[in-house]
Amino acid sequence: MADLKPRNLISVQERLRDQVAHALRAALISGELRPGVVYSAPTLAADFGVSATPVREAMLDLAREGLVEAVRNKGFRVTELSDRDLDEFTEIRALIEIPTIGQVARTATAEQLEALRPQAEAIVAAARKHDLIGYLEADRQFHLDLLALAGNARLVETVGDLRKRSRLYGLNRLDQQGELVTSAEEHLELLDVLLTGDAEAAQACMTRHLGHIRHLWAVGDKPAGQSPSGEPEGALRLSGR
To answer: 137-182: per-residue pLDDT in tens?
Structure first.
């Protein structure tokens, strides 16, 4: 019985770290945390109303994903991506994903593809509900599960890493403009094309989709003075606080 209390404490600490990490991802997506800016764990902890420890742990999780980088004795800098970085990420993804989609169109069964429809619908639903975290998670899962049908786990791992490093900035503005729903609906279009077995058409659809993603990056990566709620950037909160 003596080990029950420590186990419960660890569980609570892990849940708090995960909650902070979720809030930080949301702040990155919305633009509240700005690329190139260094943020200290104590300052963020004060905004969240928690101790600095779960913030540091959450930031280390984000650092492993390539979203931030540690700055000695200062805190964490939000990773800054240039237009060239985004172009290179898009080029690599195109080299990998477009021919792989063609392969999937030729080899995947209708049952395998239809199994992905709930994920594609979840992307659209999240976009319509303005759930940006839900959108990105559903989008990530759909694309990686789709590529997995080609049977190359290393390929899926590589694309997953590229997606982490080329996350979208400023999605709140795209959401307000209605462009996010348009991008979300492209996943259903891609799935329908794949079900026809037309590899060339599927590759063309994927090419358009990646081009649209690059456009979203270009539009979304613009500085803004306020969050969608009208609060100044940096007014960070944990959900439910």
So the answer is: 899 999 999 999 999 999 999 999 888 777 655 567 677 777 788 8
How many residues are present in the chain? 241
**Which band of pLDDT confidence, cut at 50, 70 and 90, is reported for residue 237?**
very low
Q: Encoding tokens for residue 134?
A: 């839900």
Q: Rounded CA gap, 81 and 136, in Å?
A: 18
126-138 pLDDT, tens digit each: 999 988 888 888 9
d(CA 19, CA 16): 5
56 closest CA partner among 65, 26, 43: 43
How many CB atoms are closer than 10 A to CB 161?
A: 12
Residue 73, amino acid? N
Contact 219, 179 (CB under 8 A): yes
Q: What is the pTM of this model?
A: 0.74
The structure tokens 């240039």 sit at 82
CA-wise closest residue to 161 among 241, 66, 83: 66
CB atoms within 10 A of CB 48: 21
pLDDT of residue 239: 46
- Residue 95: Cβ-neighbour burial (10 angstroms; 0-12, 13-18, 19+): exposed
Query: Which phi and psi angles does 232 have, rounded to 5°?
Result: -60, 150
Whether the CB-CB separation of 144 and 156 falls below 8 Å is answered with: yes
Dihedral, CA of residue 172, residue 173, residue 179 and residue 185, to nearest 10: -10
